[in-house]
């Protein structure tokens, strides 16, 4: 009896100290794991490539634990790979060198060149932000037999749904260049139009100025007349640009002014005079 009394006393002591037996702790651990696996079973889509030959193919809720974990790993890997690919593509677009904008490298699969019936204008538009070479456009325009003046029409009101602000840069260093910037109805998009006398490097200076403000060129319509007058219209994504249309207009004007005032200005002035 004395021995039995000691045993009961020891059992009582263990209960008072709150100690949990190993078997109870193990059961609690398994229950927690099973609960988490049940959540994954509901959240993670089934891998139908392997499920078609499995008995649980018609009822994903019956997936075994090891299958749930396998599907989870595959789902996470695929999601991560997709995110990395999207980020890489985004970085590639943002890192495009402005020097390559004027080169036609054949990367614009959606590019199409349109010529008007009299061959006066050459138009090229691409949907991925890369622009065709100005050189090819000027060659087509030089063969035109007559010129139609479009400068007046480009100064008219912009298309319906656009809030357009126009600035004439009448500075002697940047003669005959007109810039207009409009906020399109589509979210996060501007329409930028540059109209005036063409010069060497003008297209490069425009695209360089737009990209320096964080504007991503989505589409471009480039027109060159036989008289040397150009009308370039760009649709740009302003997701990474906090500037207003007026601010974009002013900054682009400054870029073109600085480029025009760079080396070779005197030579261009003499050419214009003659």
Automatic annotation (TrEMBL):
One of its GO terms (molecular function) is protein dimerization activity. Residues 8-18 have a biased composition (Low complexity). The lineage of its organism: Eukaryota, Viridiplantae, Chlorophyta, Chloropicophyceae, Chloropicales. This is BHLH domain-containing protein. It comes from the Eukaryota. Residues 120-130, 153-174 have a biased composition (Polar residues). Residues 17-79 form the BHLH domain. Residues 191-273 form the ACT domain. Residues 1-30, 112-174 are annotated as: Disordered. It holds the Pfam family HLH. CDD domains: bHLH_SF.
């Amino acid at each position: 009896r004395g021995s039995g009394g000691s045993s009961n006393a020891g059992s009582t002591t263990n209960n008072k100290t709150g100690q949990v037996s190993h078997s109870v702790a193990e059961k609690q651990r398994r229950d927690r794991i099973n609960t988490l696996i049940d959540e994954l079973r509901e959240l993670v889509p089934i891998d139908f490539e392997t499920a078609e030959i499995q008995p649980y193919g018609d009822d994903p809720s019956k997936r075994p634990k090891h299958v749930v974990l396998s599907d989870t790993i595959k789902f996470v890997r695929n999601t991560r790979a997709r995110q990395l690919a999207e980020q890489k593509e985004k970085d590639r677009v943002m890192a495009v060198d402005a020097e390559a904008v004027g080169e036609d490298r054949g990367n614009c699969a959606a590019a199409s060149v349109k010529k008007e019936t009299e061959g006066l204008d050459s138009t090229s538009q691409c949907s991925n932000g890369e622009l065709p070479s100005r050189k090819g456009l000027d060659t087509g325009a030089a063969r035109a037999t007559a010129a139609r003046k479009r400068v007046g029409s480009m100064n008219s009101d912009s298309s319906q749904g656009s809030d357009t602000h126009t600035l004439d840069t009448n500075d002697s260093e940047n003669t005959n260049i007109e810039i207009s910037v409009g906020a399109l109805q589509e979210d996060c998009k501007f329409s930028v139009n540059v109209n005036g006398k063409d010069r060497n490097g003008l297209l490069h200076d425009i695209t360089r100025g737009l990209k320096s403000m964080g504007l991503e060129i989505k589409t471009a319509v480039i027109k060159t007349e036989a008289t040397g007058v150009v009308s370039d219209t760009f649709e740009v994504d302003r997701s990474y640009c906090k500037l207003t249309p007026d601010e974009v207009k002013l900054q682009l004007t400054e870029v073109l002014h600085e480029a025009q005032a760079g080396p070779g200005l005197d030579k261009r002035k003499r050419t214009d005079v003659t």
